[in-house]
Each structure stands twice: as structure tokens, then as C-alpha cells.
Design goal:
The complex is a heterotrimer of chains A (about 500), B (about 500) and C (about 100).
Chain A (H helix, E strand, L loop, with lengths): L6 H7 E12 L36 E2 H13 L3 E2 L6 E4 L9 E4 L6 E12 L2 E16 L3 E5 L11 E5 L6 E7 L9 H19 L11 E11 L9 E6 L2 H20 L8 E5 L4 E4 L12 E2 L10 H8 L6 H12 L3 H10 L2 H9 L4 H19 L10 H12 L5 H12 L5 H8 L7 H14 L1 H8 L6 H11 L6 H12 L5
Chain B lengths: L2 H6 L2 H10 L4 H19 L2 E4 L1 H16 L11 E5 L26 H8 L3 E6 L33 H8 L5 E5 L6 H7 L2 E4 L20 E5 L2 H11 L17 H5 L10 E5 L9 H16 L3 E5 L7 H16 L20 H12 L2 H14 L5 H24 L2 E5 L15 H5 L6 H6 L3 E8 L5 E7 L5 H19 L19
Parallel strand pairs in B: 2-3, 2-4, 7-8, 7-9
Antiparallel strand pairs in B: 1-3, 4-6, 5-6, 5-10, 9-11, 10-11
Chain C lengths: L5 H10 L6 H18 L23 E2 L9 H5 L5 E2 L2 E5 L8
Antiparallel strand pairs in C: 2-3
Helix pairs in contact in C: 1-2
The chains are: A alpha+beta (about 500), B alpha/beta (about 500), C alpha+beta (about 100).
């Protein structure tokens, strides 16, 4: 069990210094250097060719769409765009790398020196932090290995590995922040907020679906600690396998606690790559390296330099969408909600989802209610981000519509949601399959009411005598009998009528 | 025509006869396959002979001809292809154990263009492993022997291709030239070899040794044949980002003399590429070429290229550096040799064992040299500095081409050396490329033309160099000189090669 | 120019994934020394202000449109694999994690 110091203690003694590296898989039609498809989930080794398989003699040719996406990402992050840059080879041996080098960019990234503002909720209210961007550059993805024979598919103890190169050569944009120094208590949140804001930006640009759980957006969290008041940077670790926005926050938090324990007991932090464990939110040592890897970078001789013209950059600048922060301010005004309410939506990763639900026909208050309430709870329970829930904004809008027209009540709506999340189908399909419609047929209700009245003769007596407050008992019985699928208000009306309450 | 006449013919002659219906492509292919069968036990020029494929391709040309379809200028002509170009369905070894029996699933662009042109690929030729060498002794499959003297090297790394043409096994061959690997073998086997401008011939499917230097090019017995082949394989390829997106230079017209001869042309003699280190016979033949050019009306100028002396050092930093990266993919994971996989060893161990067993000494040396030159801390002093020297060499050429239209030198300092003579001395072996390296680093075109016999009555070549993308100039000068020399000699230099046992090589 | 120590040669061999024998380490070490002496003379050239040349023909912006081209079939991709299983390349156990 790794030692850790409680978070508050850790940040009382140390200041965290973070760096975030995000890899974004572009959803171009073809790969970075060849014409193979980039689809997720295909049969293994069916989306490969001599180039991305690294066969002897094969040569790369740059995908022009990937270059444009890289420039747009750089512009959206307020970066300068290089007027001339090159690809470089990063040389190291690994079975998921077909060429045993990765074609990337080294000291000449296509975009550099930018920033992204992120909003977090603090005790003093919403605060904006400016995360500075060091660079964004183009590179290619590797193949995917599955490890066989060991525990839980991890490398340790594995007997052999199986490699699928479908993913090899898919275009990646790597975005690296400069060091981020914020008050310790905010560090995990700022890290998450950055990842979230960046994700929103990428999706708004339309260059990637940025699904963290599918690997089309990967966040590596670098963290080191400085003793409070010191200016000397500590040894940093890099944590990978962070597969959701929640995990970004948890990983940073854990590393702060772990490193504080190491340093606090007089030890030194090992410079290493660590692996985040979803199950318990801890990180484990990913690899022991005796020596730092020497990648022997040199300019890629098989490719020409990339020199975006001013005209191209200006044209691409004109294609940038509204920045997410700007969009939020606009929506906040449109919806008439407070800063705090918008921040809650942002924290929950619900802004887009609510917007889409409203566009699909729901009113903003109800849309917000469902996403921040029932659905946020479901996401937390299953440990995923809201966006990963298997329910769409169209689904939610439909449920709202069904509730509005009386077909569903809140309780039934919750059951429909449960059904959709369980993969039972669309809201209408769930309603039909589970028979969840509000019973609006009075005759069916009357039958249930008669049964209930007959079963509770003393209550029926009191009702006839005009003591309406006991109606609840009958209503409850009818609701139970109809498994909650009745409109309680209507049942009450009918009960009073049926029981012969004077005046109904 | 007899088999002997067929194998002695030039590519242009054969193509003409096939097109005219005087002889079938199948007959031509068969004659050359017979020549290979009769001579390759002594020569070992070929690693794979594809008799079935060749006859089938030849048959297809005959069928097209019979159907009245137009045939390209080399349709039906046999060719030997250096085993560094991938060929779908045919083994491609690059002269290495690590690719023994590897069958590529695709064709190189050069291969595809040859097939499209109706050229009949007879098989794949021997080479120094991964094109690293100047003698073909570094082949994992044994050396090729020089048809002029079987105890001599045929040059390298394209020794198999050069020997095949010199021994009449094929009228045409394709080689690759990174530091001289077409030109030097051509010189020491008495035939024509050309390194095109870098980017002039697609490298897609050419197994990479040094990416910024490798170039595929033609071997032939005449300048015109070389031009016809150059024109067939050259030109822009969208699959190779370094290929030149411009029309091919007019090499065939130049070879036919349609762009003129050498009268009035300024021919630069490079001070640094002659004299000390060059055998007396080599220097004498070169001096005679200078005289001949003057007689033909060229204007000889002396040019000084002060950085050429650093060419060898720069090359032996740049090429191994790129090679160390290009050869990393041979790791036993996806194709080729895998050894030492006992079920409990790690991937790192298996990679290490595979490469140890699969690579020869010269390849290992260059990989380590390249790894060193690119290492953190050494990059600036070695690889970085070498690329700067490369710029200085380029500037020397650019300055030289202000005063000269072409430059000339001996192709290589010595005639063919004996097999085994230099194999324990890498640096001695590297000297073979002294004269060819500068134009490789610059990227300009260069030809080796047979210039006469030197020491031990072995062939000597003249190197003709031209500015980047001015390939037609080397063919223009080469053709003019070739014509004059054939007149002077009463035939080709190759006619003086000692007889090899084989079809049609007996009496003249 | 200092000679390469045996350790340095061993390090180069490791970096290059070459399992050299002790005899090879000695033999290649000596040869590399000689070669390095020959190539080190690039340092003699004063080239402080000289830009490096990485491409013989200085072209920029060679790209391809974002279009699909036919891929290999799974069988073609695996045809030369030393070991394959379930449509994937089977490789020996990996010691060092290098997740992407």
C-alpha cells in the first residue's frame, strides 16, 4: 500500500507544480502518412499498408488535412504558428512501433507559445486561471498491444503480447503546457478544468471526437512538489492511463499525496512514468529505467519541411469556432442563470449536453435538472464522465417531452433513464418494453380504485363522510397497484369522485 | 538470330527487333536465362532468378505485339534488378540474412514502372548487405565475381547488377547509388552506370540505407540504353515526398546527340579528385579523356573544390546515422528473421539476438557509428557538423558550375581489387568512394563511362557530373565521348574482357 | 579524439539492440575508433555560420490529400510474421512499459 499524506496536509507543506501533456487523435479520413482508414474498432491488422506497417522500402507522405487541423488547434490555443518547421525521427525500439522510430516534431513544433483560460470554482467564487501552452506538434500514433498471460492484462508477468497496428500512423497532435503553478488546493481542479476546456475546444473545432475513454484524447499528468516557499523544482513524475476527466483530478490529487509522503519521510521522488489505476485512484510505478532514453532525434529525411503560408494561416483563422468560454457566457445570458449555476454545469461537464438537449426541444431548467441530478449521479456511481453515459441529449429531450405531455411522471421518467442507461433501447422502446406509460385510461384506474376502496372499508367510510385527508391511503394503494404508473393527481380526483366524497 | 547475338545486343536493338517482329520477347528472355544458367555459377550475380515470371512477362509482350498494341521503347527487354527493390511475390533480401526468403506484398514504384513498360525482370541481383559496401563482399550470400577476372570484386554495392550486364546476362540492370554504388561497379566492370539527380527516381519500395542520398539508376552497355532505362523508371512519384515534381530531363534526346556534342562545352577538371591516391593507370586514362575532350572541341577548365576532401568524413557520418534509424525496423517482430525466442526471453532480448544473427559486420559497424553520431552530446559535433560540411560541398559545386557546364574525374581511384584484399580494413574500403561521394552529398547527377583499361588490364571509368536536375548534360557528354571512343577502339571496352564460359562467348 | 571504451561500445550495442559477443565488442570497438578518427575531421572545417543541408533539392510543403487508399488484407499483413495469433502479431514479453 503506497504511503500517502492527506491532501490538506500535503498542500500545507508543499506547492505542486504541474505540466499536462495531451495527445489528440485526429479524425481525418486517412492516416498521418498513408491512405489507410482511421476507424476505431476494426478487425486487427486490416487497416494497415506498407507505410504504416513500416515495411522495408515504404515512405511517408504528409496528410494535408492533419496539417490544417494542427494549425487550427494552435490558433485556437492562441499559439504562434511556425512559418517553417520539420518532422523529426524519435528513435527507440518498441514492438508497437513499426519503424522502431516515431515520426514526430522535435525542436520545431508547428505551433508554440499559446494559452488557454480555465474557470474553476473556489471558496472566493469562480476564478479564471491562464494555462500557458508550450507547444502543439504533429506526430503519429503507435500500434496497440494486448498483454497475454499476466494479471489484468498488464505487462508485469505477461507471457507474450499481441500487436494490432491499425492504430499505427493515426495522426496525433500533442499539446504540452508550460508549468502550471496554482494554489495547492486548486491544483487537481485546475488540471481537470484544463483537460475539460481543451476537450471542449477540440470538439468545437471538429478535429476529433476527443473521447478520453476510447483513447482519442489522452492526458498525461506531470507533477512535482516544492517545499512551501522554495523556488527549487522537485523531481517530477509522469502519470499515464488517465482515461477520464475525473481521473485527471484524482491522479493529480493522489500524486500530491504520495509525493508528499515520500518527501516528508526524507526520501526522494523517483523520476519515472506511473500508471493510474481507475479502480482505486492510485498510481503505480510503470517502469524502472536505469538510464534516461536517448531518442537521437534528427530531421526526418523522407519528408519536406512544412511551411504554412500567411494566406493559409489567415484562412484557417477564419474557420475557428466560438471559444468555449465565450459560448458559455452567451448561454448563461440566454438561459438566465447565475455564474454559480453555469460553473456547476461546467464542473459536471454538462454544458454541451444541456445545450444539445435544449436544441432538441427541452426547456433549459428541466434539461439542467436531469443532467445535474439523475444523470450526474449515474455518472458518479459508474465512475465515468457525463459525456460517456450511454444516453444522448436527444434521449433526454424525448423524456422531457414525454413528461411534459403527461405520458410520464418524474418517477417513471427516472425508470426510463435507468432503462436507457442499461442499454434497453430508446426512451420510447423502454417505455413500451417495461410498460411504463402513465395509466391515463380512467376505466383501468377506476378498477384499481374500486379494489382499493373495497380493501380499506373504514377509509372509504371516512371519505364518504368528507374527511378527504385520508384519501392518500387509497391513492397510495392505487399507485402501488399500478406500479407507480398513474398520475397521482388524477388518481386522487377519481378516488374522491368514486368514494362519493360530497362535492366531487 | 543466335542466342549469342541476342545476348550481345543492346537494349535498343532488342526492343527494335521485338517491335518489328524479327524475334519474340520469349526467345530473347530464354537466351538471357540460358546465359545466366551458363555463367552464374562462376559469377554469382543473381540471388533469385525468376524464369517463370520472366517468360510470362515476355509472353505478355508478344501477345500485345500480336494484338497490334503499341509497345514502349523497352518492351520485351530483359533486366536484372538489384535485390534492394521490393518485388511483389518475389524474394527481396537486400543481401542480408535478416530478410532471407522475405516475400514483399507490394512492388516498388521502380518495379511497377518496369513491369508497366513491358521490361522483363529476369531476377534479383546480389549486393552488399543493405547497400553498405564497395565490393559486394558484404553480401550474406557470398560475393559476386567480376566477369573480367573472377578473383576480383565487381565493385559494390550494386556488384550483382553490374556483373550481370558486363557478362551479357542482361542488357540492362538497375542498381542504387548512395555514395557511388552504381558508378564504381560500372567503372570496375567496364560498363555505363548513372546516378540520377537525387529525387529523380522514386525511392518508394527501395529499401532505405541513407534516405537523403539513396538513388536508383541504370546500368547498361551503352549510353543510349542507360538513357532509355533512366527515362522509364524516372519521374515524379506521389508516394515519395522527396521525388522531384518536374518533367524528367531530356536524357534520351541527349543520348541520341540531339542536344549537341561537347563542342563549346566547358568541362571542369576537379583538382581534388585526381593525383595522389589514384593508380597510375587510372590517372593516365583520365588524362587521356581530358585530351580527347579537348580534341572534340570542349573547353577544359580547372576547378578548385576545397571541401571535397571532407566528403568521405561527412558521408560516413550522415549515411550511417540515417541507416541506424532506417534499419531499426528489422527487429524480428513483423517479418524477416526472428531468433532466440525461447518462450521465456523478453522482446528486448529477442530483438538483440535477431539483429546480432541477422546483420553482417559492416552493417553492425555502421549502425553503431550512426547511433554514436546521433547520440545526445555528440549530435552537434558529428551529424550536425557533417550536414554543415555538406552545405559547403554543395557551395563548392555551385561555384564550380559558374565556370563549368559539367565536371569530370576518374570514377574511382583504383581498378577492381582482389576479393578479400580490403575486407578487413573498413577505411581502406571506404576510399573506393572518394571521387563519387561529393556528387552524392550534393545530389547532382553523375555517370561513369568506360574510359579504357588501367593497371592489370582492368577497366577504368570516367565520371561525368552535372548540376542538380541537369541530367541530360551527363548523357550528352557521355554519348559524345562514347562515340569517339568506340571509333578509336573499333568497338566497346567490354569487347576486350576475357572470355567467360557460356553461351556465345567463344570466338569473336 | 579519445578512443571508445569497451563500456561505451557496449552501450552503443545496447542502444542499437545488437547482442554483440565480447570478441565483437573488442573487434568493433577497435574498428570504430579508426573510423571515428577518419570522420572526426569534419570538425576541422569552420562552419559556425553555415546552415546544415538535410535535403539535396530544397522543396517544402509536399503533402497528400486526406483520401483513402486500399490497405493490405489481414493475411497479407501477417504473411511474413514470425508468429501470429488471432489476427495479431505475437511478440515476446515486454519488460518496459511504454504506453502511448
Amino acid at each position: 500500500m503506497t504511503d500517502r499524506v492527506p491532501f490538506d496536509e500535503a498542500i500545507a507543506a508543499f506547492d505542486p507544480v504541474m505540466g499536462l501533456e495531451v495527445h489528440v487523435e485526429l479524425d481525418t479520413a486517412s492516416k498521418m502518412f498513408c491512405g489507410c482508414p482511421t476507424e476505431f474498432g476494426a478487425e486487427p491488422n486490416t487497416q494497415v499498408c506498407p507505410v504504416c506497417l513500416g515495411l522495408p522500402g515504404a515512405l511517408p507522405v504528409v496528410n494535408e488535412q492533419a496539417v490544417e487541423s494542427a494549425i487550427r488547434i494552435g490558433l485556437a490555443l492562441n499559439c504562434s504558428i511556425a512559418s517553417w518547421c520539420r518532422f523529426a525521427r524519435k528513435n527507440y525500439f518498441y514492438p508497437d512501433m513499426p519503424k522502431d522510430f516515431q515520426t514526430s516534431q522535435y525542436d520545431e513544433p508547428i505551433a508554440f507559445d499559446g494559452w488557454l483560460d480555465v474557470d474553476v470554482e473556489t471558496e472566493a467564487g469562480p476564478q479564471t486561471y491562464r494555462v500557458e501552452i508550450e507547444r502543439a506538434h504533429m506526430e503519429e500514433d503507435t500500434g496497440k498491444s494486448t498483454h497475454v498471460g499476466g494479471e489484468t492484462g498488464r505487462i508485469h508477468g505477461a507471457d507474450h503480447s499481441l500487436v494490432d497496428y491499425n492504430r499505427a500512423g493515426v495522426p496525433l497532435i500533442e499539446i504540452v503546457t508550460k508549468t502550471i503553478e496554482v494554489p495547492g488546493d486548486l491544483a487537481p481542479m485546475v488540471a481537470r478544468a484544463y483537460a475539460s476546456e481543451l476537450r471542449d475546444l477540440i470538439v468545437a473545432l471538429g478535429v476529433s471526437d476527443a473521447h478520453m475513454h476510447q483513447g482519442s484524447m489522452r492526458v498525461d499528468a506531470n507533477l512535482s512538489l516544492k517545499p512551501k516557499g522554495s523556488t527549487t523544482l522537485g523531481t517530477r513524475t509522469e502519470t499515464k492511463n488517465v482515461n477520464s476527466l475525473r481521473s485527471v483530478e484524482r491522479a493529480v490529487r493522489f500524486e500530491i499525496e504520495r509525493q508528499a509522503a515520500v518527501l516528508g519521510s526524507g526520501g526522494t521522488v523517483t523520476q519515472e512514468t506511473r500508471h493510474f489505476l481507475e479502480a482505486d485512484g492510485t498510481t503505480t510505478s510503470g517502469r524502472s529505467k536505469e538510464e534516461a532514453e536517448d531518442y537521437r532525434y534528427f530531421p526526418e529525411p523522407d519528408l519536406t519541411p512544412v511551411a504554412p503560408s500567411d494566406e493559409l494561416v489567415q484562412r484557417l483563422r477564419g474557420t475557428l469556432p466560438e471559444a468555449p468560454a465565450q459560448r458559455r457566457r452567451r448561454l448563461q445570458q440566454q438561459w438566465g442563470i447565475s455564474d454559480h449555476e453555469m460553473q456547476s454545469l461546467l464542473n459536471a461537464g454538462a454544458v454541451e449536453l444541456v445545450e444539445a438537449t435544449i436544441e432538441a426541444g427541452a426547456d433549459q431548467a428541466t434539461a439542467r435538472k436531469w443532467w445535474l441530478g439523475e444523470l450526474a449521479r449515474a455518472a458518479n456511481e459508474t465512475g465515468v464522465d457525463l459525456a460517456e453515459l450511454p444516453i444522448t441529449s436527444a434521449d433526454v429531450a424525448r423524456i422531457v417531452a414525454l413528461t411534459d405531455d403527461g405520458s410520464l411522471n418524474d418517477k417513471l421518467a427516472r425508470q426510463v433513464i435507468e432503462g436507457v442507461l442499461a442499454g434497453e433501447g430508446s426512451p420510447d422502446a423502454v417505455v413500451a418494453a417495461r410498460g411504463l406509460a402513465v395509466v391515463s385510461d380512467d376505466s383501468a384506474l377506476l378498477a384499481a380504485i374500486d379494489d382499493a376502496l373495497a380493501a380499506q372499508p373504514d377509509v372509504a367510510e371516512k371519505l364518504r363522510a368528507g374527511k378527504v385527508q385520508v384519501a392518500g391511503a387509497v391513492v397510495g394503494a392505487v399507485m402501488k397497484a399500478t406500479r407507480g404508473q398513474a398520475d397521482a393527481a388524477r388518481v386522487r380526483e377519481l378516488v374522491l369522485e368514486r368514494a362519493g366524497v360530497p362535492g366531487t | 538470330m543466335s542466342a549469342a547475338e541476342l545476348t550481345r545486343s543492346t537494349a535498343a536493338e532488342l526492343a527494335g527487333r521485338i517491335a518489328a517482329g524479327d524475334v519474340s520477347a520469349v526467345e530473347v528472355a530464354a537466351a538471357h536465362l540460358d546465359q545466366i544458367a551458363a555463367t552464374d555459377d562462376s559469377l554469382h550475380a543473381f540471388l533469385t532468378v525468376d524464369a517463370d515470371g520472366a517468360l510470362e512477362a515476355a509472353g505478355a509482350v508478344d501477345a500485345r505485339r500480336a494484338a497490334g498494341e503499341p509497345l514502349g521503347p523497352l518492351a520485351g527487354v530483359p533486366l536484372a534488378l538489384k535485390d534492394v527493390f521490393v518485388t511483389r511475390g518475389l524474394p527481396t533480401t537486400c543481401g542480408s540474412r535478416i530478410l532471407q526468403n522475405w516475400i514483399p506484398p507490394y512492388d516498388a514504384t521502380v518495379t511497377a514502372r518496369l513491369r508497366q513498360a513491358g521490361v522483363v525482370i529476369l531476377g534479383k541481383t546480389n549486393m552488399d548487405e543493405f547497400a553498405m559496401g564497395s565490393s559486394t563482399e558484404n553480401s550474406a550470400y557470398g560475393p559476386t565475381h567480376n566477369p573480367w577476372a573472377l578473383d576480383r570484386v565487381p565493385g559494390g554495392s550494386s556488384g550483382g547488377s553490374s556483373a550481370a550486364v558486363a557478362a551479357y546476362q542482361a542488357p540492362l540492370a538497375i542498381g542504387t547509388d548512395t555514395g557511388g554504388s552504381i558508378r564504381q561497379p560500372a567503372a570496375v566492370t567496364g560498363i555505363v552506370g548513372v546516378k540520377p539527380t537525387y529525387g529523380g527516381v522514386s525511392r518508394y519500395g527501395l529499401v532505405a540505407f541513407s534516405s537523403s542520398l539513396d538513388q536508383g539508376g541504370p546500368f547498361a552497355r551503352t549510353v543510349l540504353d542507360a538513357a532509355l532505362l533512366h527515362a522509364t523508371i524516372g519521374g515524379h512519384d506521389p508516394m515519395d515526398a522527396t521525388s522531384i515534381d518536374a518533367p524528367l530531363p531530356a536524357v534520351v534526346s541527349a543520348a541520341r546527340g540531339e542536344l549537341g556534342g561537347v563542342e563549346g562545352l566547358r568541362v571542369g577538371v576537379v583538382r581534388q579528385l585526381q593525383g595522389e591516391g589514384y593508380q597510375p593507370g587510372v590517372q593516365a586514362r583520365f588524362d587521356e579523356m581530358v585530351t580527347l575532350l579537348t580534341e572534340l572541341g570542349a573547353q577544359i577548365v580547372e576547378v578548385d573544390c576545397p571541401h571535397f576532401g571532407y566528403g568521405l568524413a561527412a558521408y560516413y557520418l550522415i549515411a550511417p546515422s540515417e541507416a541506424s534509424s532506417n534499419l531499426a525496423r528489422f527487429d524480428g517482430m513483423r517479418y524477416g528473421l526472428r531468433t532466440g525466442d525461447d518462450g521465456s526471453s523478453s522482446v528486448e532480448q529477442v530483438m538483440g539476438r535477431t539483429r546480432e544473427a541477422g546483420f553482417g559486420d559492416e552493417v553492425k559497424r555502421r549502425i553503431m557509428l550512426g547511433t554514436y553520431a546521433l547520440s545526445a552530446g555528440y549530435y552537434d559535433a558529428y551529424y550536425g557538423q557533417a550536414q554543415k560540411v555538406r552545405t559547403l560541398i554543395r557551395r563548392d559545386f555551385e561555384a564550380a558550375y559558374e565556370t563549368a557546364d559539367v565536371l569530370i574525374s576518374p570514377t574511382t581511384p583504383t581498378v577492381a581489387f582482389r576479393i578479400g584484399e580490403r575486407s578487413d580494413d573498413p577505411v581502406a574500403m571506404y576510399q573506393a568512394d572518394l571521387a563519387t561521394l561529393p556528387s552524392s552529398l550534393y545530389g547532382g547527377p553523375a555517370m561513369s563511362l568506360p574510359a579504357g583499361l588501367g593497371d592489370d588490364d582492368l577497366p577504368v571509368g570516367l565520371q561525368i557530373m552535372a548540376p542538380v536536375q541537369a541530367d541530360e548534360r551527363v548523357y550528352r557528354v557521355g554519348a559524345a565521348l562514347e562515340a569517339a571512343l568506340h571509333e578509336r577502339w573499333g568497338g566497346r571496352l567490354l569487347d576486350r574482357a576475357p572470355a567467360l564460359a557460356g553461351v556465345g562467348r567463344g570466338a569473336r | 579524439m579519445p578512443a571508445l571504451s569497451r563500456d561505451e561500445v557496449a552501450h552503443l550495442a545496447r542502444l542499437s539492440r545488437l547482442d554483440l559477443t565480447p570478441a565483437e565488442l573488442d573487434h568493433f570497438g577497435a574498428q570504430l575508433d579508426v573510423i571515428l578518427s577518419a570522420v572526426a575531421r569534419v570538425a576541422e572545417v569552420a562552419a559556425a555560420d553555415v546552415p546544415p543541408t538535410t535535403h539535396a533539392v530544397p522543396v517544402v510543403n509536399v503533402t497528400r490529400p486526406d483520401r483513402r487508399r486500399p490497405s493490405l488484407t489481414q493475411a497479407e499483413a501477417l504473411a511474413a510474421a514470425p508468429a501470429a495469433e488471432n489476427g495479431r502479431f505475437r511478440v515476446p514479453r515486454i519488460l518496459d512499459e511504454e504506453e502511448q
